[in-house]
Design goal:
- The protein has helices at about 10, 50-60, 65-75, 105-120, 130-140, 145-155, 170-190; strands spanning about 20, 30-35, 45.
- A hairpin with an 8-residue loop joins strand 2 (about 30-35) and strand 3 (about 45).
- The model is unreliable at about 160-170 (pLDDT under 50).
- It has about 210 residues and is mainly α.
- The protein has a 3-stranded antiparallel β-sheet with strand order 1-2-3.
Length: about 210
């Protein structure tokens, strides 16, 4: 949810460690390349400060900690950022890395409904990820009228679903502007009146992307 609320669910969960470019010199906090999904083109997301914090926390203190340590040491060549299968003690374990695949749709929907319950939001049949995508698209139009940014925010290359503008590639500079709009959207959302649950051993599972 932190990294891809505005994008397509299928793209976000297929991201692997090598899709993260945390030292990209044209950005302040790095970026991530979400792969193409069917006929949908790939999407580059420039990370905001808050998103980079979430990524670093997952890799160095959370559920990806063991896999990231192995990746840094060269013991594994890659790993899914949102792995399927059960976590052990809240972590994706190295021994299962070779067989790990990204979360599937059913797993993501279960997490989405769990998130709704924690947030105190009534579940609406058929809303799911698509409802979040529609909401963010509407909010973005209140922040900017730049059709390139509005298309890039949701990963649209053919904006006939939104505007009659066609675009194949989005530069990192434009992606940086998209990140600013994305943060503006989230700043406008109401904040839940609840304190986070303490988790001294790190997150107990991967967050919904």
């Amino acid at each position: 949810m932190e990294l891809g609320a505005e994008l397509r669910l299928g793209q976000v969960v297929r991201a692997y460690r090598k899709d993260l470019h945390l030292d990209e010199p044209q950005t302040l906090h790095g970026c991530i390349d979400f792969p193409s999904c069917g006929k949908k083109a790939s999407a580059t997301v420039v990370l905001t400060k808050e998103e980079r914090v979430a990524v670093d926390d997952a890799m160095h203190h959370g559920y990806l900690m063991e896999l990231e340590s192995a990746y840094t040491a060269g013991a594994v060549k890659n790993y899914p950022l949102f792995p399927a299968r059960r976590l052990v003690g809240g972590y994706a374990r190295l021994g299962e890395d070779a067989k790990r695949k990204p979360l599937d749709r059913s797993g993501l929907l279960k997490m989405f409904h769990a998130l709704e319950e924690v947030a105190g939001v009534a579940s609406v049949p058929g809303r799911g990820w698509y409802g979040i995508r529609r909401l963010t698209s509407d909010l973005a139009a209140d922040i900017t009228q730049d059709t390139r940014i509005l298309d890039g925010l949701g990963g649209w290359t053919d904006s006939s679903t939104r505007e009659m503008v066609y675009q194949r590639r989005i530069s990192l500079r434009l992606s940086g502007q998209i990140a600013t709009v994305r943060q503006g959207i989230r700043d406008r959302l109401p904040k839940p009146d609840m304190a986070p649950t303490a988790a001294p051993a790190g997150p107990q599972g991967p967050p919904t992307p």
